[in-house]
């Protein structure tokens, strides 16, 4: 039977996953509605929103980053694990931890690069979308990669949750 701390972590994990799913659903719905409105306005009324195209692009960036963050939290991210497939089952946990540490380092590096990019965009401030500087929209990149790095670190330190790959007879 799990201890109270374990139950609290599981409840918190489920709450975060539900919030991520809700946010992704709202974002997808808003992007679809805005895209449909833009299509109708252009095809039938020969007009449209000037701000819609860049906002849709930013929405796609946010959708991608939040989807990657949710996939990392659910351990449903893309895994290329050729070594783990051919090694003995007792070594798979250790290899999974090493892989998670490598992924955490890569995500940490990408978070730092994203922060530098945002700083550069802030200094240049050439683009505004709905009167908001573009660098504010780009903050999702370092934020999401930073959170993914933390999730990979927790996965490296915690119990192996990914099932061992089955080998063909």
Largest sheet: 2 strands, antiparallel
Average pLDDT value? 88
Distance between the termini: 36 Å
Estimated structural class: mainly alpha
- Gross morphology is elongated
Count up the domains.
1
Give the helices and strands as they follow along the chain: HHHHEEHH
Radius of gyration: 20 Å
- According to DSSP, the number of beta strands is 2
Total helical segments? 6
Record the strand order, biggest sheet: 1-2
Helix content estimate: over 70%
Outline the low-pLDDT stretches: 162-169
Strand percentage: under 5%
Keywords:
single chain; 169 residues; mainly alpha; two-stranded antiparallel sheet; 2 strands; disordered C terminus
Short description:
With 169 residues, the protein is mainly α. The protein has helices at residues 4-45, 52-73, 82-86, 89-124, 134-138, 140-157, and strands spanning 128-129, 132-133.
Question: What this model shows, in words?
Answer:
Helix content is 76%, strand content 2%. By secondary structure, it is mainly alpha-helical. The chain has one domain.
List the helices and strands and how they pair.
Layout: H1 4-45, H2 52-73, H3 82-86, H4 89-124, E1 128-129, E2 132-133, H5 134-138, H6 140-157
Antiparallel strand pairs: 1-2
């Amino acid at each position: 039977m799990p201890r109270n701390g374990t139950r609290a972590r599981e409840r918190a994990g489920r709450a975060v996953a539900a919030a991520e799913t809700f946010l992704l659903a709202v974002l997808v719905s808003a992007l679809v509605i805005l895209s449909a409105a833009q299509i109708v306005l252009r095809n039938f009324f020969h007009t449209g929103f000037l701000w819609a195209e860049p906002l849709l692009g930013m929405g796609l960036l946010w959708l991608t980053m939040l989807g990657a963050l949710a996939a990392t939290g659910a351990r449903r991210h893309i895994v290329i694990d050729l070594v783990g497939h051919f090694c003995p089952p007792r070594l798979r946990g250790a290899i999974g931890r090493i892989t998670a540490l490598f992924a955490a380092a890569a995500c940490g590096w990408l978070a730092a690069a994203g922060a530098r990019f945002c700083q550069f965009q802030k200094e240049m401030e050439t683009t505004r979308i709905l009167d908001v500087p573009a660098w504010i929209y780009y903050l999702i990149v370092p934020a999401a990669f930073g959170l993914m790095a933390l999730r990979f670190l927790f996965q490296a330190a915690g119990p192996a949750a990914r099932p061992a790959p089955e080998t063909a007879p």
